[in-house]
Protein 1
Amino acid sequence: MSQYRSPIVLMYHGTPDSQPDSHYSIRADLFAKHLGYLKQAGWKTALFKDLRNVENLPEKSVVLTFDDGYDDNYLGAFLPLLEHEMKATWFIATDCISGHAHWLGKPSMQTRMLNSERLLEMHTAGMEIASHTCSHPDLSILSLNQQQAELSKAKSVLEDLLSTQVTSLAYPFGRFNADSVTAAEKTGYNLACTTRPGWFGSENNPYMIRRIAIFSGDSASTLARKLTFADNDVSWKKMARYYAGRAWDKLSRSSWN
Ligand SMILES: [Zn+2]
């Protein structure tokens, strides 16, 4: 049996070619190292929507997701993925297509969003383009009706653009409540993800799928540990505690049995 449990879903944001302004974005050259590691370690990429039929996925499947739809993903992630024959899912806030990520403050190169032509090109190349609402609100403070409006409009904007069904959703800021799950279901989504860390298999609600966050400083070996432990914090300090705990468990089991 493999030491890995899978599938596992990773969350990326921007992939700029210079130092990221955000803790959640990663430099394109470091992202390229992540892809090299995944390939060399035998991980297979799947789309988020493939999680509906998880039994069909190969062992060691990883789902790469990109939130928001940053323009720097085109050069920094989409083209390198194509080159490696890998795939990924993008969650797009539809009001921001060709615009800026307004929630990040002052517009800059790194807040620029993908335009429709690029989204269509990415979809045609086999990437999944999915929903991240229209205006990127904190859904948990909206009424059920407001949430439904955000979810159904974003879905139809993307479906018109791509001429395909859009059934995957990511909650902005990872914030949601019971109404969000109801709204997602009612408006025709069949999978949604949060920012809670953990294995895909540790959550049985298809509208609360867990993801591991990737941060700006994450090296390929940090990524490897994240894939092993399905946790956002894989600092050596925490790892030391984990192994100390395991050694202690072993010790106590052997002395008690
Ligand atoms: Zn977002």
Note: The chain has a mean pLDDT of 92.
Protein 2
Amino acid sequence: MPDEHADVVIIGAGIAGCASAYYLSKRGVKVVVVEKGDTGDEQSSRAWGFVRQQARSSRELPVMMACNKIWHDLSRELNADLEWVQGGALVVANDEETMEKVRNWVEVSREHELETKLLTEREIKELVPSMEGPWLGGMYTPSDGHAEPRKVTSAFARAAQENGVVLRTRCAVEGIDVSNGKVTGVITEKGLIKTPVAVCAAGAWSQKVARMVGLRLPYRVVRASVLETEPAEHLTKIGVLGPGIAFRQRPSGSFYVAPGPGGTDYDVDLDTFRDIRLFLPNFRRNRDLFKVHVGMELIKDVLRSIPGSPARRHPFSHTVGVEPKPNRKVLDIALRNFRRLFPSLASLGIQRYWSGRIEATPDAIPVMGEVDGLQGFIFATGFSGRGFGMGPIAGLLTSELIVDGKPSLDIRNMRHSRFREGDLDKTKAVV
Ligand SMILES: Cc1cc2nc3c(=O)[nH]c(=O)nc-3n(C[C@H](O)[C@H](O)[C@H](O)COP(=O)(O)OP(=O)(O)OC[C@H]3O[C@@H](n4cnc5c(N)ncnc54)[C@H](O)[C@@H]3O)c2cc1C
């Protein structure tokens, strides 16, 4: 590949990268997207598909409320069936601690004028009549929805390509050229692309991309597992989260079932002790949300770090096609919980199991915007398990930042320098 030029190079063809490329292409910007594997192959095609404003931090909520409006019209905008269903999101609780979180969050939603109702058990029963309780109560946000992750990123990519965006898959970025504090090019395994702007939309690999320009990007990578059932009769359009369970029913009738926020795995690796000070407060608060494993991932990481090893020489292409392992144990528990909620579906078969890696920042808030002191280096990452829902607006705001010099919504709360400044969001994790 001879040296190329682009106005903007986007690193990563997940939903954040492809949406950024699409909105930039609408403004006439010459964009190249570089992807180490295939389009949407990582988190963006593995998500549950929830598009929730519900239970977001105050820092993210205005951005996500604006994104919700984009979702309403996205299928028409991209001319694609995205399986968008505006069925609302429901959290059900059967312990006082969760109810307390729910009540607190309903207050947050009120401050932002987002309609969210506190529910009694009877009202839950009215919303999802076939679901068994008992419940202490819950909350419901009717404007939330869900869509199919395997369709959305590819639809953004296709629409971007129709507008002239060049998408290079199986082409890992291995370096970034910087001169006098400005980005001048992106080095891929197939050659240099000269550009004044590089967008880091590399998902769980963004930390390694940030290191290419000497930046620390604190996050931990966790593993989340999901299963899809065979299709069943239509029971609900609502996406539901409860104790030990999260599920939604696709228009085809199949259910995505996951263990919910508490069923996440954390594999200890060589990055575990980096920036530990930033993680400890949230680690203590949210200790019950994940299971810690010390084992193969640590050994593999040590092997990957051996000087001269293929993984050390090509740390990105080396990861392509490596499937993270779904945790069948937590999925079996989630399935049992699901069957308890819907006894009539007890014999429903399973179509597939999968898992994906999620980057989680110390305050679970994304990292967006240009980095101080490094002109042309922009983050659109760190979505901490909520980036499928937020992907479209992350792309739109990134495009506005690049073209207009300022996004149409305030994203200073998501700036990279907040880690250095100690200005982290202190919101307690809510279901
Ligand atoms: C199991 C699971 C369930 C989830 N459920 C939900 C949900 O219900 N709702 C929700 O909102 N979010 C959910 N999420 C989170 C959501 O999927 C992510 O936040 C979102 O997809 C992140 O998008 P992204 O574009 O930032 O990252 P990704 O989709 O991971 O894309 C990053 C891309 O960058 C590429 N890349 C990395 N390094 C390089 C390099 N050096 N060179 C070239 N390419 C590179 C990667 O190959 C990858 O394709 C879930 C995630 C998982 C795993």
Note: The domain at 4-421 is CATH 3.50.50.60 (FAD/NAD(P)-binding domain).
